[in-house]
Amino acid sequence: MLKLLATVITLFTVATTSVTSVTAQNNNPIVRGQYLVEQVAMCADCHSPRNEQGEFDRVHWLQGAPIGFKPIFPMPAWAEMAPSIAGIGNEGSTQEEEAVVKLLETGLNSQGMPARPPMPTYRLSHSDAVAVVAYLKSLNSN
Ligand code: HEC
Question: Is ligand 1 within 6 A of the CB of residue 118?
Answer without folding.
Answer: yes
